[in-house]
Design goal:
Structural class: alpha/beta
CATH superfamily of the largest domain: P-loop containing nucleotide triphosphate hydrolases
Number of domains: 3
Strand order of the largest sheet: 3-4-2-5-6-1-7
CATH architecture of the largest domain: 3-Layer(aba) Sandwich
Bound molecules: adenosine-5'-diphosphate, magnesium ion
Distance between the termini: 56 Å
CATH class of the largest domain: Alpha Beta
């Protein structure tokens, strides 16, 4: 009881019932507020929901132990997403249960009329999303006249999601004498401005300094070959066997794709994306909470602010586009002092970008390879050995059959059958390709400023056994070795050293690849044999034959890129020039020697941008 000193007894009772032993720092801090406005920042997972629940109590109860009958709402809490609003509703319901409070929710995607009926019956506290609350206010179904307090929860996320106008509308509709509490993980200028406009003498509380942010989260950056991204996720999921894991994708299409793939692989998965109905989303989250599902695949918007108490693992299937998203995603785990892992899947070539992302987020990550198939199996074995099932003594009613089993098959066979069964019940880990040790975009050893030239043969004369490939782009599409090579390395999981000569034609490019690496190159680019932007790759038998008069490279099946890409020549302007420069028959030399690039080839007027990884 002493840990909850200074709290309204009814709420202290609820906290105890819930099994809380101590308040988090931000919760302790709000107890000092009395009736003051406040702008509170604390890292994700620090318990801000209960904090504002506690902060509201003096204003709403005014010294009483219980609420009177519900009528016009006394407090309004605004949260960025439906899930979050429902989560807040649930938290306030248990926290305020002993006070007899009615907590109602108004969230987008639910039936407006049934919400209206609930409001008509009366509520002490209303929780909702900005758009829906605004609708209710506009239609006069939400009476704001008796509000004593308004809370903006996850204020930074609400502004990120573009709710500024709705929030201002809501705040303007509330009585001037109300209390305004703002809770946020971060306080960017936009929040400070909003606070200035709508709060009076607000107390600024900042609990859990920025530098302490995400201390309970272990960041791992996992370097993978581009085509191995999904296999790497499978191994990470298998390695950690988290009670709950959240996999982030950048698009709904990617969510659908991964959900289907993992379902087929025997993972218990649910999807969370904006295209699902509210009902489907609630079901998905409930499945995660009660253990029917272990893996949730989600887009950023769908997963904002979600609190899954057993979330031990966050995987960034697609790299987040900015540091804030990285922090928000990762903050779903490592909550309230629990440990979590946040794993970034970093394909070849995205390392620099990832390093920048981590640095801008102020995070340190361990760079590593994803768990290999062997690592996963080893971990499985450790789990089997440590299984608490082995601690339970044999029960009397089991003994007879156990003896019979041992007599018939012997201990070794019984153990073998048991182990096989354990393994069969789990999805097999994937064999991952080794990531080539060095490519231009990869890390240079400390202190090394420049590429290690000595490792790459400077001349291609003695390139050795090789296989030729044809790519379905050429000069006409403004192909250039300076971006073709990094793309081949990245997508084909090879390094510069394995690339020999590059011979560019009008509509086709021939690339020589070291024989030992040819199969692996093909495997890496995947069964559709396409590089980035629909560039079709074909393996040639022998050397490309360019001695035929009037050689015409086969037309690509498809135009390599839609839209403006750096290498797309402005066709009208350059076509005549190219046609005049058609290589005469017999000009082609045998394909030895340094690659020779037609000096007048690709037009120089369009500088290729650095291509996205
Ligand atoms: P935030 O809004 O700061 O990101 P939440 O309010 O969602 O964090 O709380 C994170 C988790 O911590 C929730 O599961 C919540 O139930 C739990 N929690 C909050 N306060 C306490 C406490 N005093 N003791 C133990 N767990 C707590
Ligand atoms: Mg919160």
């Amino acid at each position: 009881m002493s840990n909850f000193e200074g709290i309204v007894p009814a709420l202290a009772e609820a906290l105890e019932k819930r099994g809380y032993v101590e308040l988090t720092p931000v919760q302790k801090a709000v107890l000092e507020l009395g009736e003051a406005d406040a702008l509170v920042s604390a890292q994700t997972g620090s318990g801000k929901t209960v904090a504002f629940g506690l902060a509201l109590a003096p204003t709403l109860l005014g010294g009483a132990e219980r609420f009177g009958p519900a009528g016009v709402p006394l407090a309004l809490a605004v949260a960025p997403t439906r899930e979050l609003a429902l989560q807040v509703t649930r938290e306030l319901q248990w926290l305020y249960a002993p006070t007899g409070a009615t907590v109602a929710s108004c969230v987008g995607g639910m039936d407006m009329r049934s919400e209206r009926r609930v409001l008509e019956r009366g509520a002490h506290i209303v929780v909702g999303t900005p758009g829906r609350l605004r609708d209710h206010i506009t239609r006069n179904s939400l009476d704001m006249s008796a509000l004593k307090a308004v809370v903006l929860d996850e204020a930074d996320e609400m502004l990120d999601l573009g709710f500024r106008e709705d929030l201002e509308f809501i705040l303007d509709a509330a009585p001037a004498q109300r209390r305004t509490l703002m809770f946020s993980a971060t306080v960017p200028r936009s929040i400070a401005t909003l606070a200035q406009g709508y709060q009076r003498d607000a107390v600024r509380i900042s609990a859990g300094g920025e530098e302490k942010q995400h201390l309970d989260i272990e960041y791992r950056a996992l370097n993978v070959a581009y085509p191995d991204r999904e296999n790497a996720i499978i191994n990470v999921l298998r390695f950690y066997e988290a009670k709950n894991a959240l996999v982030f994708c950048n698009t709904r299409a990617a969510v659908n794709h991964l959900t289907a793939r993992f379902n087929n692989r025997n993972f218990s998965v649910v999807a969370l994306s904006g295209e699902l109905s509210q009902n489907e989303r609630s079901h998905a989250l409930q499945a995660m909470r009660d253990g029917r599902a272990k893996v949730c695949i989600a887009t950023d918007v769908a997963a904002r602010g979600i609190d899954l108490p057993n979330l031990e693992l966050v995987i960034h299937a697609d790299l987040p586009t900015n540091p804030e998203t990285l922090l928000h995603r990762s903050g779903r785990t490592g909550r309230a002092g629990r440990k979590g892992v946040s794993a970034l899947i970093v394909p070849n070539g995205a390392r620099k970008r990832t390093e920048r992302l981590l640095q801008n987020a102020g995070l340190k990550a361990t760079w590593a390879s994803p768990p290999s198939a062997d690592d996963v199996i080893k971990r499985d074995d450790e789990r089997i050995l440590a299984d608490p099932a082995f601690d339970e003594p044999v029960a009397d009613d089991e003994r007879g059959f156990i003896d019979a089993l041992l007599a018939k098959h012997g201990a070794e066979q019984v153990a073998a059958a048991f182990v096989r069964q354990c393994r069969a019940s789990r999805s097999a880990p994937e064999d991952l390709m080794d990531v080539a040790p060095f490519t231009p975009s990869r890390e240079k050893p400390a202190g090394e400023k420049f590429e290690r030239r000595d490792e790459a043969p400077s001349r291609r004369d003695d390139f050795g056994d090789s296989v030729w490939f044809s790519l379905s782009i050429g000069r006409r599409q403004n192909a250039e070795p300076r971006w073709l090579i990094p793309m081949l390395c990245r997508t084909g999981n090879i390094s510069k050293r394995e690339i020999g000569a590059i011979k560019m034609q009008q509509e086709e490019t021939f690339v020589q690849i070291a024989a030992d690496w040819a199969d692996r190159f093909l495997a890496a680019i995947g069964p559709d044999k396409k590089l980035q932007g629909n560039i079709v790759v074909k393996r040639l038998d022998g050397t490309p034959d360019l001695s035929r008069a009037g050689y015409q490279a086969p037309k690509p099946d498809k135009k390599p890129h839609r839209g403006k890409r750096p290498f797309e020549a402005p066709q009208t302007a350059h076509k005549p020039k190219f046609e005049k420069r058609e290589r005469p028959a017999g000009d082609a030399k045998p394909w030895a020697g340094k690659p020779k690039f037609d000096k007048a080839g690709p037009p120089k007027n369009k500088k290729p941008k650095k291509r996205p990884g």
